[in-house]
Design goal:
By secondary structure, the chain is mainly α. It is 78% helix and 0% strand. The protein is globular, with a radius of gyration of 22 Å.
């Protein structure tokens, strides 16, 4: 009964259009004051202990690093490099968009930032070369979703905070699925470009490719700084985030000189605003998790599912359906912070690896960002292309179906996620 009341209040508040963070906070406070006898002192204690985590510091640093690189010319240099490598294939510019999104995802950690950075440059270029706008928008909208799967990923940090899972192991677990999804999206792009005979770029010489790589090398080095540092044990994921912010600042201001020192305060302010928003959501999500635990709701759900005879396959299918439905109304960070504490205990009871569960949930978030009515990437792409949401939904469907096929693979083939962290001795 308590769980029904709790979720009814939350859904009712969200349906009014209230921001998710405030909806969570009001739900918790309403339930606390009317349905429970929990001392407020214990709530305050849980609130402070819940957010007193070293991993949380990674979020503002990764956001700052992404903002430095997004405001600079790193995206253009990565596009040039990607185009020199795959531009001569069928649908060359579109394929370079997929590759550029994968590369930029590995330095930004954000899907909307990837769509804006790559799409604002590449979509007008594709239209100029003779590609239909629908095709270009479909490619970039879905490929931009790689931003939360390929590490560093802010959503993965959220999962780690919610479930006390290793951030480093999660990052490594996202590498192979990220490459696999990028390859599948690239395959769909190539197939449709070949079918409709879309334009190809002249083949670049190896000298041109080398020059493009040299120009983009400073941006690409960030991947090595973050991933290499974590794997080698030189620094923790949080320290890697701090290093990436400093590195991105030096590259953008002093090496590429795309940003002047006068622009730095504005970027710092934007990063602080975004970090504050996410930390506010985390704070309210911690309180929500406390209420769930206090009312034994995850334990009750676990007992119910085991009584109903739910095995691994049925449970994972149910989680996918719930998360895909949630993706219609909520953005990834909120979904992760609300649902991870609920499904995590059940998954542990059924013997599902927490790292595999985390990657599967992130892939669900990716799909959610590309379908209506609240797919964040759709809104970003709509702003770039001036296309309606309905038209964009039609444009993305071939790549969305590809992502759904990949979701099935990521769900029922745990080795794809777990092989690399196990091989590196991280789990």
């Amino acid at each position: 009964m308590s769980s029904l009341v709790l979720f009814s209040i939350l859904i009712a508040l969200m349906l009014t259009g209230m921001p998710i963070s405030i909806s969570l906070g009001l739900t918790v406070l309403t339930f606390l004051f009317t349905m429970t006898q929990v001392p407020l002192e214990s709530v305050a204690l849980k609130l402070f202990s819940g957010i007193e985590k070293f991993e949380i510091m990674a979020i503002p640093f990764f956001i700052l690093a992404g903002n430095f690189l997004t405001h600079g010319g790193v995206a253009q240099r990565m596009i040039n490099f990607a185009t020199s490598m795959v531009g001569h294939w069928h649908g060359g510019l579109a394929l370079s968009g997929v590759l550029a999104c994968a590369l930029f995802a590995a330095v930004s950690g954000s899907s909307p930032a990837t769509v804006v950075a790559i799409g604002s440059i590449l979509i007008p270029g594709m239209i100029k070369e003779g590609f239909p706008m629908r095709f270009g928008a479909g490619v970039i909208t879905t490929s931009g979703a790689l931003g939360i799967l390929i590490p560093p990923s802010i959503v993965m940090v959220m999962y780690a905070i919610a479930t006390n899972t290793s951030v480093g192991a999660l990052f490594m677990a996202g590498v192979i699925p990220g490459i696999a999804l990028a390859s599948m999206l690239g395959g769909m792009t190539w197939y449709r470009a070949r079918k409709f005979n879309y334009p190809r770029q002249p083949k670049a010489s190896w000298r041109q490719r080398l020059r493009a790589f040299r120009e983009s090398a400073w941006g690409l080095m960030l991947i090595i700084v973050v991933m290499g540092g974590i794997y080698s044990g030189m620094f923790t994921p949080t320290e890697a985030a701090a290093m990436s912010a400093v590195y991105a600042f030096v590259v953008a201001v002093f090496i590429y000189k795309d940003i002047g020192l006068k622009d730095v305060p504005k970027i710092l302010l934007n990063s602080a605003n975004m970090s504050a928003m996410l930390l506010y959501i985390i704070t309210n999500a911690v309180m929500f998790s406390f209420i769930l635990a206090n009312e034994n709701i995850p334990q009750q759900l676990t007992a119910f599912m085991i009584e109903m005879g739910f095995g691994k396959i049925a449970f994972l299918l149910a989680v996918n359906v719930i998360l895909l439905m949630a993706g219609n109304f909520m953005e990834p960070s909120s979904i992760m912070l609300i649902f991870a504490p609920i499904v995590f205990p059940i998954a542990m009871q059924l013997g599902i690896d927490p790292i595999h569960l985390g990657v599967m949930m992130v892939v669900n978030m990716e799909v959610g960002m590309c379908h209506p009515p609240v797919g964040l990437n759709l809104y970003v792409a709509s702003g770039l292309t001036k296309m309606g949401i309905t038209e964009l939904t039609v444009a993305v469907w071939p790549w969305l179906l590809t992502m759904l096929v990949f979701l099935v693979l990521a769900t029922y083939w745990p080795a794809m996620s777990l092989w690399l962290p196990k091989a590196l001795g991280m789990m």
